[in-house]
């Protein structure tokens, strides 16, 4: 509740064109947004462009953000996600992608995944609990902007199956991030840090 | 559809993943607006997806922050410039321009109106002058035609001049008549006759076998040739002084000039 109030204050400052608000938002969310952009575009340079463009859009369109419609992070995430997906659809991006040999692309991808923010590693392993068949559908829909039809074609599945996997996948995801799940995660993280401190 | 059934359709899950089309999106938003439970479901699913997305978090290079802040700075300067233009100052400038333009238009209208009125006056005056000039032309033309006619008659081979000499009443009185028996026209030059007192006029007569026949009262104003009636078989021409308006019979005592034809 206190977090929500702070966020409202932050949004009001942003909407009043207070530049320190955008700095604060950057400090809080830049790693998540940059990571998502990188996950989608697979290029540090393009991901940086995406993040910069995201913050400029946030600054310009702050008045359009309605706190009742969702959290600030959801809004930021959607702008970043859409910006990054748009980049992957541009002709320039495709040419660039074709120019990178497959081996190097995979290696880069591996480097990126090992460069994850250490704070999030525990969470990541937690998410890995989600079965691959649900993960891939969420990935295609959420990070590549595919339609259900495109997902069905890409995975060679009937559209009905895609729809039911979307439903179950989201339900599973919610279970993982439900209050008890997060509590478990926090306890695990706490125990880990205590153990690290003791040892 | 009731909200519990709606929650079972899977449409909400598709909606938060951005998989719904416009129509479906509108339906979901309608349910979310009507039922707080639906909105709460959406919020929870979004929260789960946010958490899912956060697993990819990566520390961006330090220079990205200064790039972002620079970008924001530039964007806000641009938007200041943009919002500055349609602001109150330029709009009052536009009003000022409008007022000047209106004044100019009124001024120009008055100027043009005055110009038009003056032009109309000039036109009327020119039209009147033109009418006068045209009438004068017509008059001159008629006069010229008459002169030409007279000249043609005088030059005609059948025209004979008749000199009228003084009888003794007025020593220096003279006149010349021109008779054309072919065309039956007669002219007389009265310029050499002396001035008459008021109430008197000169009259021309033709003597035909001892009888004096009236050829016309002579115009005192005319200093040149004037047309008179042509009388056949005239033996002599005679001019007498008569009372104003002329007489039926000549006053022989007042015979001024005469000449044999």
Read across the widest sheet of chain B, the strand sequence of neighbours is: 5-4-7-8-1-2-3-6
Give me the secondary-structure category of chain A. mainly alpha
Structural class of chain B: alpha+beta
Which two chains form the greatest contact, residue counts included?
A-B, 57 and 37 residues
What low-confidence regions of chain B span 5 or more consecutive residues with pLDDT below 50? 84-90
Low-confidence stretches of chain A: 101-122
What is the number of helical segments of chain B per DSSP (H or I, 4+ residues)? 6
Amino-to-carboxy terminus distance of chain A: 36 Å
Oligomer: heterodimer
Radius of gyration of chain B: 59 Å
Average predicted confidence as pLDDT of chain B: 86
Largest sheet of chain B: 8 strands, antiparallel
Question: Could you tell me the strand content of chain A as a percent range?
Answer: under 5%
Number of strands of chain A: 0
Mean pLDDT of chain A: 79
Please state roughly what percent of the residues of chain B sit in beta strands, choosing from under 5%, 5-15%, 15-25%, 25-35%, 35-45% or over 45%. 15-25%
Q: Kindly state the percentage of residues in helix of chain A.
A: over 70%
Give the biggest beta sheet of chain A: none
| Total number of beta strands of chain B | 8
Defining traits:
heterodimer, A: 199 residues, mainly alpha, 80% helix, B: 261 residues, alpha+beta, 8-stranded antiparallel beta sheet, 51% helix
Report on the structure:
The complex is a heterodimer of chains A (about 200) and B (about 260). Chain A is mainly α. Helices cover about 80% and strands about 0% of the residues of chain A. Chain A has 11 helices and no strands. In chain A, helix 9 packs across helix 10. The longest helix of chain A has 23 residues. The radius of gyration of chain A is 19 Å and the shape is globular. Chain A starts with a helix and ends with a helix. Chain B has about 260 residues and is α+β, with helices and mostly antiparallel strands. In chain B, about 50% of the residues lie in helices and about 20% in strands. Chain B has 6 helices and 8 strands; from the N terminus they run H-H-H-H-H-H-E-E-E-E-E-E-E-E. In chain B, strands 5-4-7-8-1-2-3-6 form an 8-stranded antiparallel sheet. The radius of gyration of chain B is 59 Å and the shape is rod-shaped. About 5% of the residues of chain B have low confidence. At the A-B interface, helix 2, helix 3, helix 4, helix 7 and helix 8 of A face helix 2, helix 4 and helix 5 of B.
């Amino acid at each position: 509740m206190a977090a929500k109030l702070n966020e409202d204050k932050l949004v009001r400052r942003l909407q009043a064109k207070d530049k320190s608000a955008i700095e604060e938002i950057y400090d809080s969310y830049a790693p998540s947004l940059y990571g998502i952009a990188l996950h989608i575009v697979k290029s540090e340079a393009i991901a940086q462009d995406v993040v910069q463009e995201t913050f400029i859009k946030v600054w310009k369109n702050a008045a359009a953000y309605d706190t009742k419609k969702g959290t600030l992070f959801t809004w930021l995430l959607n702008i970043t996600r859409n910006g990054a997906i748009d980049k992957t659809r541009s002709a320039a991006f495709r040419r660039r992608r074709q120019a990178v040999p497959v081996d190097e692309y995979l290696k880069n991808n591996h480097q990126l995944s090992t460069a994850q923010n250490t704070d999030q590693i525990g969470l990541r392993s937690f998410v890995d609990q989600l079965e691959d068949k649900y993960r891939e559908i969420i990935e295609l829909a959420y990070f590549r902007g595919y339609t259900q039809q495109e997902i069905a074609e890409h995975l060679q599945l009937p559209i009905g199956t895609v729809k039911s996997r979307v439903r179950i996948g989201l339900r599973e995801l919610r279970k993982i991030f439900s209050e008890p799940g997060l509590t478990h995660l926090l306890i695990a993280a706490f125990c880990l840090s205590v153990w690290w401190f003791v040892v | 559809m009731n909200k519990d059934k709606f929650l079972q359709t899977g449409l909400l899950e598709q909606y938060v993943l951005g998989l719904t089309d416009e129509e479906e999106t509108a339906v979901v938003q309608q349910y979310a607006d009507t039922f707080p439970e639906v909105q709460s479901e959406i919020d929870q699913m979004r929260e789960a997806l946010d958490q899912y997305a956060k697993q990819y978090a990566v520390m961006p290079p330090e220079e990205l922050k200064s790039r972002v802040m620079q970008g924001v700075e530039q964007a806000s300067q641009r938007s200041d410039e943009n919002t500055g233009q349609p602001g109150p100052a330029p709009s009052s400038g536009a009003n000022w321009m409008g007022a000047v333009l209106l004044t100019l238009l009124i001024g120009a209208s008055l100027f043009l109106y005055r110009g038009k009125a003056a032009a109309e006056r000039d036109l009327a005056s020119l039209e009147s002058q033109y009418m006068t000039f045209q009438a004068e032309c017509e008059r001159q033309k008629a006069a010229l035609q008459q002169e030409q006619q007279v000249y043609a008659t005088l030059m005609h081979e059948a025209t004979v001049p008749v000199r009228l000499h003084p009888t003794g009443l007025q020593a220096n009185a003279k006149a010349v008549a021109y008779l054309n028996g072919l065309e039956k026209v007669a002219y007389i030059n009265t310029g050499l006759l002396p001035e008459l007192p008021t109430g008197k006029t000169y009259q021309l007569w033709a003597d035909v076998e001892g009888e004096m026949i009236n050829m016309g009262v002579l115009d005192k104003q005319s200093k040149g040739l004037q047309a008179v009636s042509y009388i056949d078989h005239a033996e002599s021409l005679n001019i007498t002084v008569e009372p104003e308006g002329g007489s039926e019979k000549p006053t022989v005592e007042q015979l001024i000039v005469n000449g044999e034809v």
